[in-house]
Amino acid sequence: MPLPLIKAKARLILAHGAGAPCDSLFMNMLALALAHYQIEVQRFNFPYMQRSIELGSKRPPDKMAVLQQHFMVQINQADSSLPLFIGGKSMGGRVASMLNLLDVPQVKAVFAFGYPFHPPGKSQWRTAHFDTLPLPLHIVQGERDPFGKRAELAELNWPQVKVHWLTAADHDFKPTKASGLNQQQLIADAAAYCSGKIDEILLAGARN
């Protein structure tokens, strides 16, 4: 479901997280914030989520290969009139980052909003593919996200991975009351960061 806007500079195919559909409150807020920066957002539901909606009951995500296959369908069907970027919330961002390893020359970079570096409280890291990414992966992460906190990542780095930290935010970019911030402000921060990186990539491409 693309969000229409005037004079878009880029298209971002945005996948949802494991437990909420593409039109969740978070996804709606993020899509609107990105549209403010002339980024056309195209959202979709993975098949398991669509079945969950139709049946009215929760279903677990499909296997990674199935999720990747469906994401690739979205990429292959995308209009080529705009520069293409992909990304997602949590699990959706992880799927997009793994597509980065495939032959998808039309995609210029990947954006993950709240990357699930590991399950909360566990040390099963989901970063094995980070060392071989051929394209940039930009991650927007809450400082206190239980799926990957700032302190846990302080000593880690990968060639193509950049992390932008959101002050006092959790996995859904909700901050602590003491921070004086709100979720909408942090989502706007995430969108501004995404827009800035897209501008850098497009400018570099224009120079080449």
UniProtKB/TrEMBL annotation:
Organism superkingdom: Bacteria
Spans through the membrane: none
GO molecular function list: hydrolase activity
SUPFAM superfamilies in the record: alpha/beta-Hydrolases (SSF53474)
Keywords: Hydrolase
Gene3D superfamilies noted in UniProt: alpha/beta hydrolase
InterPro entries, alphabetized: AB_hydrolase_fold, KANL3/Tex30_Abhydrolase, NSL3/Tex30
Boundaries of every KANL3/Tex30 alpha/beta hydrolase-like domain copy: 9-196
PANTHER family referenced in this protein's UniProt entry, alphabetically: TESTIS DEVELOPMENT PROTEIN PRTD (PTHR13136), TESTIS-EXPRESSED PROTEIN 30 (PTHR13136:SF11)
Protein name: Alpha/beta hydrolase
Organism, as annotated: Arsukibacterium ikkense
